[in-house]
Automatic annotation (TrEMBL):
Its main location: membrane. It comes from Mandrillus leucophaeus (Drill). Pfam families: 7tm_4. Belongs to the G-protein coupled receptor 1 family. GO terms for molecular function: G protein-coupled receptor activity; olfactory receptor activity. This is Olfactory receptor. Keywords: Cell membrane, G-protein coupled receptor, Membrane, Olfaction, Receptor, Sensory transduction, Transducer, Transmembrane, Transmembrane helix. Residues 41-287 form the G-protein coupled receptors family 1 profile domain. The chain crosses the membrane at residues 23-47, 59-78, 98-120, 141-164, 205-225, 237-258, 270-289.
Amino acid sequence: MESKNRTVITEFILLGLTQSRDIQLLVFVLVLIFYFIILPGNFLIIFTIRSDPGLTAPLYFFLGNLAFLDASYSFIVAPRMLVDFLSEKKVISYRGCITQLFFLHFLGGGEGLLLVVMAFDRYIAICRPLHYSTVMNPRACYAMLLALWLGGFVHSIIQVVFILRLPFCGPNQLDNFFCDVPQVIKLACTNTFVVELLMVFNSGLMTLLCFLGLLASYAVILCRIRGSSSEAKNKAMSTCTTHIIVIVFMFGPGIFIYTRPFRAFPADKVVSLFHTVIFPLLNPVIYTLRNQEVKASMKKVFNKHIA
C-alpha cells in the first residue's frame, strides 16, 4: 500500500548556480560573452580543417572531431543555464533531465576516449615514426573514431539504465544548474549505496584510470624525445604540453566530481560550471593556438572570406 501511495516525480526543480541575483547576472553576462566568442572559433577550426587539403594528417582529423564534440557538449548545459538565469522558476521534466544526463555522459565519455586516441597518435608519430603511416591509416582512424563514439554511448547508457530503475517519489529539488548523476541519485526514495558504487566505478574509476594512463603515456613520449634534434624536440614538446593542459582541464573536474561518494561540497557547482561550459569551449582553441599549421590555415581562410 505504501508504494501505491507514493507520488511519482514528473519534473525536477533546479536550484541553480547561486541564489544571488547579482552573481547570476554577472555569470550570465560572462558566459554569454564567452559563449558567443569561443563557440564560433570552434566551428572555424572544423571548417578550416575540412577545407584545407594540407590538414589531412590524423592529428588534424582528430582535432576537428574534438572541436565538434566540445561544441556539441557546450549545447547540452549552457543554453538552458542562460535561459534559467532569467527565469524565476527553473524546472526540467523527468524525461528532459534523463536526456540531458545521457548526452552529457555520451559526449563527455566520447571526448575522454578521443583524448586517449590522440595520445596514441602522438606516441606512434614520435616513438614509432617509421610505422606511423601504416598504423594510423585512414581506415584505422575511422575505426578508432567509431570505437570512441560507441564507448561513449555504452558509458552513458549504463548511467541512464541504473537511474531509470530508481524510484523518484519524494523531494524533486536538484541542487545544481543541470541534471547530473550525483544530484539525481540523491533524490531517489530508496537505498542508493550500491548504485552509487556502480556509478563511481563507471564514471570515477574510468576517468581516473584514463587520466593516469594519459599522463604516463606523455611521460614516455617526453622521455623519448630528449635525444631528438632541437627543432623536432621543440615541436614535440609544444604538442605534448598542449595535450597535457587539455587532459588536466578535461579530467581534473571529472575526477573531483565522480571519484568520491556523492556528497555535496561547496566547490561542486563552480567545478561543474568549468567542466560543462568553460573548458569544453576552450579545449580546441588551446590546441589551435599551439599549432602553427592550423593557425596559418585559419588566417588564410579568414582572409579569403574577408576579401
